[in-house]
Amino acid sequence: MHVQLREINGDDIQSINRWRADRALVDHLCGAYRYVSPEVDRQWFATYLGARANNVRLAITVGHNELIGVVYLLGIDWLNRSAEFAIQIGSENWRSKGVGSIATKAILNHAFHDLNLHRIYLTVLADNERAIRLYAKLGFVDEGRYRQAIFKNGAYRDIVQMAILRDEFVMGDPPHARIESSQRLLD
């Protein structure tokens, strides 16, 4: 499987907007389900373009640039060398195929070896056991639980905080993903 990561672009907004409207997908994420119009996502993208110095937003593609998901480093703190990680495999046909693992390894490699970050953290729903197992397998450590921190589907749910430090990251086999134009990401 040939997975590539590239910076998101305006052509990706339609797919990203469709994924935000997929309640079954959003139910597995920490964010709340909201109705988001394509215009709001176009404005979101324009805002991102103005904040690229502190955010890396990459499209996950397969084959001939087929967009199947996104992976992000958000709120990069250049003093403390940390960032928040987020991933979404939007294309249902590509979920549970190993793409998330490949994309996560690739962006962690980029974070630690290209951007010289020290700590990458994430939050995940406590009942998303599959995601927690994947993150632990990749080296993320459970740092604690936010009890009843998010309201989803009529109930309060716990969130688990996990993080990985640069010296805990083991690249292992090549991630089989390539990040296009990583130098551009710092422009």
From TrEMBL:
Residues 3-163 form the N-acetyltransferase domain. It comes from Pararobbsia alpina. Gene3D superfamilies: 3.40.630.30. It comes from the Bacteria. This is N-acetyltransferase domain-containing protein. PANTHER family: GNAT-FAMILY ACETYLTRANSFERASE (PTHR43415:SF3), SPERMIDINE N(1)-ACETYLTRANSFERASE (PTHR43415). It holds the Pfam family Acetyltransf_3. GO terms for molecular function: acyltransferase activity, transferring groups other than amino-acyl groups.
